[in-house]
Design brief:
The complex is a heterodimer of chains A (308) and B (570). With 308 residues, chain A is of the alpha/beta class. Chain A contains 11 helices and 14 strands. In chain A, helix 3 packs across helix 4. Classes of the chains: A alpha/beta (308), B mainly alpha (570).
Chain lengths: 308, 570
């Protein structure tokens, strides 16, 4: 659905996007992660036809964004990172204006606007002026606007930034609902734990270059964090460390805050060997917990923290 | 001991110490801004063109006659040239001061930096004076540019040093007052274009229409003071009358009974000081008060808004669902027209009331003044300029304003065509000003009726030329406004560029001292001094062609704007 081929964008001497190759499948939620100034917003702006690429090409549903601007805009709903609102319009008028701007017939507008208001839970606010809405409500209104022409692709640039936890949860639920509706969503966010919960794929970008692209499982596999467990024994911790260190599958054993961290060689898995060894030696196990990779950790490990 | 004294003395008069770090910061920032260099260049260029055309019109056309005759005319020419330059500087410098200071506090309020400044030890006095004086310093540099010119023209004779000094002092104090007034309004209003419009409307009312009315009443014996006393008072408190009085002294064409320019300058300085004091008092409150404007409607503007909205915008067909107005017609036009003629903010309503008052006063002056009194027509010109500025605000501000509000990208990702967006903005800018244009038409009718022209064909010709001039100006201002709105990032820059271009081009192409017209006149006069018909015909052509050119440039710029619409989005 979304594809970029050697996409490049320069601002004078600065290369904001450098030879970027992305491929997002139909119906996926794609999380776009990167430090500030990495090139996320520039990529999204190119995809929604607001910027012209310097080199390479970008496609939405097979259409080149540089050549078929109007057709692409009909397919895409875009929510920018800092979204302005027409403060002198009412919520209903605001959405009806965009419905008219997308060429929706006058007869159909009312029912469409009411539909998106219901979906975004803004029905009670339809007569309120846009600038009287709270930040969370304005973000929801932004999402309602994005949905007004029923686009196949949603490109959302940090839609949850600056929102309180409740509003963030609401936005997350809304995105899940949109995924169920079959939309392809590209979303960037700094709140990585949120992306972890809703994204099928993630792309990590730094200095305009794609550092990694794939599923969360693929990241775990790549960083080798999956083959790590934390063990807690009732007593004789030193003996446990000695026994586990002697195992050929184990690369390193460390004592950490009363627990034992066991790291396996690449490609090796715990497969119950830790528990079996300790039980056979007569040691009482309190807990064995495989260590899961957090997206934040992956982000820190995959990026260098360098910005333009 | 000497070193300590010198140090104390220099510290005492160090501007940074006196006016705080704001003064220092403003000077630093202004030196980095390209637009300030462009402004200086544009000012010098315009001044040079102006001087050359005045020179040519005064000495160039009728160059026949002996050398002795020519030399004898130099002193009167010198006086004419110098008074014209002084008027040019007086008006231009005040306009620049108004524009320069219009965003001084409002920008700080809008971006939230004023609140941050208030948490530092910087005092309100330092903020206000730092902003005001840093800008005035730049203006003084502009005024200083013309000093050598004034000194050179003095060589022709007939111009006293007293006049040079008095005119500079009157201009300086008027510039300080205009700047202080603009700064004061920038504390009240959020947008700099509202500040510019409000200051100009206020200026025209306080220094134009009201004194004109008092003078007229005094002439007719209906005022508390007689004519001489009224004119003397006006000369003391009104910089325009003061400069006119100084020029009258130089040209020996009648002066008010009592007039002293130093007293006038002291009064202007006192008024400026009062304005600064009020600004200092209000600036802290402005930082704290919420920037949301009240939705309470002022009584006359509320009634006016409903009435005009019904007449011009067909918005009376409201949806039964409360006050939601359904989108009809092109969406861009609908959105812009949604604000109506009066607008939604307090600023818009106050402005409308002031404009209506100004129109009424001008109409009264036109009706009651003697036929040879040119003053009401100057007021009409001022009103015309305000209408054009308002159109520039709606055309340039509607695009650059969207960039500032960050709504521009979301409008551009809709399926609306580039032409559709530009045309919508242009149509709305014109339609929103139709009531003012109609009021201006009424003034034109009164003005021509007052001239006493009875021949129908003459009336028709004059009216057609005037209407053509208005239409072409409209096309230029809308096209130019849309173009600068697309090119520039802030509404203030776009509006200032539009208004500046309009004034400069109108002067160069269509003005009284239009260099092209002068050169043509001169050539024709030399070639065929007796062919008055040819001169009349050429004069007509020289009026019409530049007017068409102005409209043509407007259409060209609008087309350029369509092509550049997606190039400077962020």
């Amino acid at each position: 659905m979304i594809e970029t081929k050697n996409l490049t964008k320069n601002y004078g001497d600065l290369t904001a996007v450098d030879d970027l190759n992305l491929a997002i499948k139909d119906g996926d939620i794609f999380g776009f992660i990167g430090p500030n100034g990495a090139g996320k917003t520039t990529t999204m702006r190119i995809l929604v036809t607001l910027l012209e690429p310097y080199g390479g090409s970008a496609f939405i549903n097979g259409l080149d964004v540089s050549k078929h601007g109007k057709k692409v805009r009909r397919l895409v709903g875009y929510m920018p990172d800092f979204m302005g609102v027409y403060d002198d319009l009412k919520v209903f008028e605001y959405l009806e204006f965009f419905a008219a701007a997308f060429g929706i017939e006058r007869k159909k507008r009312k029912s469409i606007v009411e539909g998106v208001l219901e979906l975004t839970d803004l029905e009670s606010k339809k007569s309120a002026t846009v600038d009287s809405l709270s930040r969370g409500m304005q973000q929801r209104l932004g999402l309602a606007r994005v949905l007004i022409h029923d686009p196949k692709v949603l490109i959302l640039d940090e839609p949850a930034s600056g929102l309180d936890p409740r509003a963030r949860i609401e936005i997350r639920e809304l995105l899940r609902e949109l995924k169920r509706m079959g939309k392809t969503i590209m979303i960037s966010s700094h709140i990585l734990s949120e992306l972890e919960e809703i994204c099928d794929h993630v792309g990590i970008i730094e200095q305009g270059k794609l550092v990694f692209s794939g599923t969360l499982e693929e990241i775990r596999s790549r960083l080798g964090i999956e083959s790590k467990v934390r063990v807690s024994v009732a007593e004789h911790q030193d003996k446990a460390i000695e026994l586990l260190s002697a195992l050929p599958q184990v690369r390193r054993v460390q004592a950490l805050n009363g627990e034992i961290a066991v790291t396996f060689h690449e490609g090796q898995h715990a497969n119950g060997i830790v528990a079996r060894t300790l039980v056979n030696a007569g040691l009482d196990i309190i807990s064995i917990q495989p260590e899961r990779l957090k997206l934040d950790d992956a982000f820190l490990q995959l990026t260098k923290g360098v910005v333009h | 001991m000497t070193t300590a004294l010198t140090s104390t003395f220099s510290n005492l008069f160090d501007p940074v110490r006196l006016f705080g770090p704001i003064f220092d910061k403003e000077l630093r920032v202004s030196s980095r801004r390209k637009k300030n260099y462009f402004l200086r260049f544009a000012y010098i260029l315009l001044l040079s063109i102006f001087i050359l055309s005045i020179w040519y019109s005064t000495l160039g056309i009728r160059s026949s006659g002996s050398a002795v005759y020519q030399i004898s005319r130099l002193s009167s020419a010198g006086r004419q040239i110098i008074t014209t330059i002084v008027w040019f500087q007086f008006i231009t410098a005040q306009l620049i001061a108004i524009v320069m200071l219009s965003s001084s506090i409002s920008d700080e309020i809008r971006t939230g930096t004023l609140s941050v400044l208030m948490t530092t030890p910087i005092s309100s006095f330092q903020i206000v004076t730092g902003k005001l004086l840093s800008k005035l310093l730049q203006l003084m540099l502009l005024l200083a540019i013309s000093l050598p010119l004034l000194a050179i023209v003095r060589v022709f004779g007939g111009v006293t040093w007293n006049y040079v000094v008095s005119s500079i002092c009157i201009t300086l104090t008027a510039v300080m007052l205009a700047g202080a007034l603009s700064l004061f309004f920038s504390i009240i209003y959020r947008h700099s274009y509202a500040v510019i419009l409000m200051t100009i409307v206020g200026y025209l009312l306080i220094f134009g229409a009201l004194p004109g009315l008092f003078n007229l009443l005094a002439i007719k014996g209906m005022f508390i003071f007689n004519r001489n006393v009224t004119q003397s008072i006006l000369a003391l408190i009104n910089p325009f009358v003061a400069l006119a009085a100084e020029n009258a002294t130089l040209l020996q064409s009648g002066v008010p009974k009592f007039f002293s320019w130093p007293i006038h300058c002291l009064i202007m300085l006192a008024v400026t000081a009062v304005l600064i004091a009020v600004a200092v008092w209000r600036v802290r409150g402005a930082a704290l008060v919420s920037t949301f404007s009240s939705t309470t409607k002022l009584w006359p503007a509320g009634v006016l808004e409903r009435m005009l909205t019904r007449i011009f915008y067909k918005a009376g067909s409201q949806s039964p669902d409360s006050s939601i107005i359904p989108v009809t017609g092109p969406p861009i036009v609908w959105k812009e027209m949604r604000k109506g003629f009066v607008g939604h903010s307090k600023t818009d309503r106050t402005m409308t009331i002031l404009l209506i008052v100004l129109f009424c006063l001008t109409a009264i002056l036109l009706l009651l003044s003697p036929r040879n009194n040119i003053f009401p027509r100057y007021l009409m010109f001022g009103l015309y300029l305000i209408i054009m500025i308002r159109i520039a605000v709606f055309s340039a501000g509607s695009i650059a304003g969207e960039k500032e509000a960050r709504t521009w990208p979301i409008l551009l990702v809709t399926t609306l065509g580039d032409k559709e967006i530009i045309r919508g903005k242009a149509i709305a800018a014109i339609r929103r000003n139709i009531p003012l244009l109609l009021l201006y038409l009424v003034l034109m009718c009164i003005s021509y009726a007052n001239l006493g022209i009875r021949v129908f064909t003459e009336i028709l010709i004059i009216f057609s030329i005037a209407a053509l001039s208005v239409v072409c100006s409209l096309l230029f201002v809308v096209g130019c406004g849309i173009y600068f709105g697309v090119r520039l990032k802030t509404a203030t820059s776009a509006i200032a560029a539009t208004v500046g271009s309009y004034i400069a081009l109108t002067y160069i192409l269509c003005g009284m001292f239009n260099p092209l017209r002068i050169v043509f006149y001169s050539a024709i006069y030399r070639a065929a001094p007796n062919y008055s018909f040819i001169i009349k015909l050429l004069s007509f052509a020289m009026s019409i062609i530049p007017t068409f050119a102005l409209g043509g440039i407007g259409i060209f710029l609008e087309r350029r704007a369509v092509r550049r619409l997606r190039r400077d989005i962020f």
